[in-house]
Design goal:
The protein has 191 residues and is α+β, with helices and mostly antiparallel strands. The protein has one domain. The chain is built from 6 helices and 6 strands; from the N terminus they run E-H-H-E-H-H-H-E-E-E-E-H. It has a 4-stranded antiparallel sheet with strand order 5-4-3-6. A two-stranded antiparallel sheet has the order 1-2. A hairpin with a 2-residue loop joins strand 4 and strand 5. It is globular and about 65 Å long.
């Protein structure tokens, strides 16, 4: 299995190495083979690197707290795998015909009425066209919608979302950019 060090992966993703290391301490369990006294640099699998990058993006770019990013990652991990948007997606995952037509996925993350809990809605964008509507420029989108993504929302939250507190996560863009950058480095490493 191919692995990368903090220095390598932070360079690939243009993330300061100290920020990357801090995110790793926050979002991954301790590495038993690369403790501080061992003198070994921790090596990350592609899946570990993706999860740290994903959670770090939630913190750095979308403004979530570290505990919230951990919750969101835990909530969405299984869904990401079913959509083949995670390096550890099982190879036998079969997308439905409508899902095969999706060009990119975005997830709306709604704050729930209980702090630290979230409600998720996903859109799979199939097509986007610029049109005129009553002589005004407009955009027409065709998309799949999944309203009840798995979540750890408690019974007291129900489906009550704070309509003024949501963020949009461009999941496909994050995943594909990560895999393109990392696979390019991995391919160069083989030669």
């Amino acid at each position: 299995m191919a692995t990368l060090t903090s220095k390598e992966i932070s360079k690939i993703l243009s993330i300061p190495v100290e920020r990357w290391k801090r995110w790793c301490r926050e979002f991954l369990p301790p590495d038993p083979t690369a403790g501080r006294g061992a003198g070994l640099a921790r090596r990350y699998s592609v899946a570990e690197g993706f999860e740290v990058h994903f959670a770090g993006f939630l913190v750095h770019s979308l403004g979530f707290s570290v505990p919230d990013a951990k919750t969101i990652l835990a909530d969405l991990r299984g869904w990401l795998k079913t959509k083949r948007l995670h390096p550890d997606a099982p190879p036998h995952v079969i997308l439905s015909d409508p899902e095969m037509a999706v060009r990119r996925w975005e997830v709306f993350i709604w704050g729930a009425n209980v702090p630290g809990e979230f409600i998720y809605e996903a859109r799979g964008i199939i097509s986007r066209a610029y049109v005129k509507h009553e002589e005004h420029p407009a955009v027409q989108e065709l998309f799949l919608e999944e309203k009840n993504l798995p979540t750890t929302v408690s019974d007291q939250t129900g489906d009550k979302k704070d309509i003024f507190n949501f963020r949009i996560l461009q999941v496909s863009i994050i995943y594909h950019a990560f895999t393109i950058l990392v696979s390019g480095v991995m391919e160069r490493g083989k030669s």
